[in-house]
Each structure stands twice: as C-alpha cells, then as structure tokens.
Amino acid sequence: MKRKLISALLCGAMAATMLAGCGSSSSDSSSTADSGSATTSESGTTADSGSTGGATGTGKIGISMPTQSLERWNRDGSYLDEQFQAAGYETIVTYSDNDSSRQVNDIQNMLAEDVDLLIVAAIDGEALNTAMNEAADAGVSVIAYDRLILNDAVSYYVSFDNYSVGTLQGQYIVDALDLENAGDKTYNIELTAGDPADNNAPYFFNGAMDVLQPYIDAGTLVVPSGQTDFDTVATAQWSTDTALERAQNILGSYYADGTQLDAWLCSNDSTALGVSQALTSDYAGSNTVIVTGQDGDEANLKNIVDGIQSMTVYKNVSDEAVATLALSEAILNGETIDASMADNLGVECSYDDTSYETSDGNPCPSFLLVPTVITADNLQDLVDTGLYTMGDDGYLSAVQ
Ligand code: BGC
C-alpha cells in the first residue's frame, strides 16, 4: 500500500517535472540517431536544458543505449534523458547501432567528458570490458540497465524480472491450450529465442521452458522441427528478418503437408513480428496460432488487436527509468544501498543479490521490476499508464 502511494506521488512529481523539462529543452536535447558522431545527444544544465525549479541533481550522466532499430530503446533513451534532465542533471545519450565496438567507443567518449555515472544497456554483455575497466579506473559507478554486463565494474543492475517474463509467456501458452486438461490430445509448438549476446535472452527462454518442458516431456506438446535448445532457436540481434526467415524455413519443412501448428513461443516483439509475418504468408493451416511476445511495440499491439499475435509481456520502461534515476541519486549522494532501497525507488520492484553474477561468484545487487501480460482483453491497461493512446480504430500509439 505504502509503496503504491509513494510510487503514485513520485510518478506525479516526475510527470510534472518531465513536462516542465520537455517543454523547455526539447530542441536542445535533440533526438538521436544511430549514425553520426559517438556522442549523439548532449545537453547542459542551464535553465533551457531541463533544469527547472525544484531540480536538485548535480552531475553529468552518460546514458548508453544499444540501438534505435529496436523500438523500446528509443523509449528508454528518451525517458532516461528527460527524467535525469528534469532532476537537474546533464546528460549524454548515445545509441550504438547494435555494434559493440562502437558502444565501447561511445562509453570511452563519455568518460573523456567526465561523466559522474554511467547507465549502460549492453549490446553484448561480454564485450564491454575495456570501457568497464576504464570506468572502474576513473571511479565512475556503472548501472547495468535492463541487460547485465559481465564485468565487476558494474555496481548495480536495474531490470525487470527477466525469468518471470519467460514464465508468463510459457504459462500463457499452457492456459490458452488448456494443457492441464489435454488428456491424450497433443499440440504442436515451435520456439524462437533472443540474442545470445544479450544476457537476458537465456533468462526469458529458460523461464518459458521451465513451464513448457514438463508438457514436452509428457508428449502433450510436440516440437515437430525438433529445435528446442537455446543456441538453435536464438536470434542474433533480436532481428525480425532473421526470425522471419527461420520461421519460413520451419513452416516449409515441417508444416507444408498440412500439419497443424498450435503455438509459437517468441521471446520478444521484434522476433514475434517476423514469426507472425511468416505465419501470415507461409502457414497453410487455417487455425489461429498462439504467438507470444514482449515489450508492447506498436506494430505488435496492432497485431494483438487484429488477432495475429496473442499476447505481449509488457515492461513499463518509464518506470525502469524512474527506478534508475532514484538509484543513481542514492549512489551519487553516497547513500547506503541495500534491500531496503527497493522500497525507495518509486516503483514496485524486488531486490535480488544472488541471481545475477557479473563474474563467477560475484553477484550484482539487482532491482527487478514487475512485468505484466497484455492481451486484446486488457489493452486499456496500457492506455491507463498514460504512455499509449488508443485511436478510433482501436489501435494503440505510444505517446512520443
Ligand atoms: C530486453 C527486451 C527487448 C530485447 C530486444 C532485451 O534485453 O529486455 O525488452 O525486447 O532486449 O531489444
């Protein structure tokens, strides 16, 4: 109860400061692009850069996002930028075009600009050692944002409960097919996972498989392609085109004879988009195939309205930015950060200091927010966040 009240108050205050910040700074903190110089957005703390009355933060924050080609990171980048600026901080925001060496370079440039704190959503959790070691040498704290970085220079991790994203997807399939009451009936399923370079991807997949595997073992769920291990079903860079191509191959090889496909587990929306496209163009059957996703990307929400995708696991990335800002302020103010901090981040989250290790035996204190399931039946919940609007056609658009 108390946490909800704090969250509501904080979000209200954030919204007010964000509005003030956006109104005064939008032209300065120009939108960023994957091409161009490494530091693609930079803005100061003067009155017209978002530092309005009540903002007390001082310092420069480096915000390194992976790419603008996947919808959510544009939202993350701009929420973080707006919220830190509204709180009085200078920000540098970069997007690294899904290119790890460019991300190293972008972070090095931020260090050269004397940032006080780094917030990094890694392209490849194992490829940032050079930049992370330099951050440690410079005494700059690093928050791994959404995706863990496998380097001990990382001080904290802010994300969603990645494993439960997967269990929600798996459970959705179990419930939709009513597998508990399947009796002798069998159902066909195929699987598509995320980018092996992304530390999150196995968490999503394992969460889903922990729910689905018992039904596969019992023979209730069958995978006609036989492709069930993570490495085989993974999708480099979460690419829609790669997911589309693999789905077309599977449909051509295992379903062209009229075999019915009942469900396709997809770890996120960009891969679900590719799989749905393949189902629309290459699937011979007439049944509706259950397709899972994650993120609430606009195109996928449209597919949910149109009955082409069944669900998405929604992660409110504005809340993720709220939690990251609160944690950053605590770090910069030298506060003690322990489990009790989970009650002070302004959003519902749990503290976990065992599950995520930056190296063997080195767990990273993690703050994990709560994902939710969105289907055609509760799209209004997204509108209620204030982050989406619904058009007369029933389709949702993200508020820019
Ligand atoms: C994020 C997902 C996203 C995926 C691709 C993951 O690390 O947690 O929300 O769908 O990256 O961008």
UniProtKB/TrEMBL annotation:
- This protein's UniProt keywords: Signal
Task: Identify a single GO molecular function assigned to this protein.
Answer: carbohydrate binding
Write down the InterPro entries for this protein, in alphabetical order.
Answer: Bact_Solute-Bind_Prot2 (IPR050555), Peripla_BP_I (IPR028082), SBP_2_dom (IPR025997)
What does UniProt give as the signal peptide span? 1-20
The UniProt regions of compositional bias labelled Gly residues, in chain numbering, are 51-60
Output compositional bias ranges, type Low complexity: 24-50
Where in or outside the cell it occurs: the entry states: Cell envelope
CC terms in the record's Gene Ontology section: outer membrane-bounded periplasmic space
Q: Looking at the record, which segments are called Disordered?
A: 24-63
Residues covered by the Periplasmic binding protein domain:
61-335
Instruction: Identify this protein by name.
Output: Sugar-binding protein
Which organism was this protein described from? Candidatus Scatomonas pullistercoris
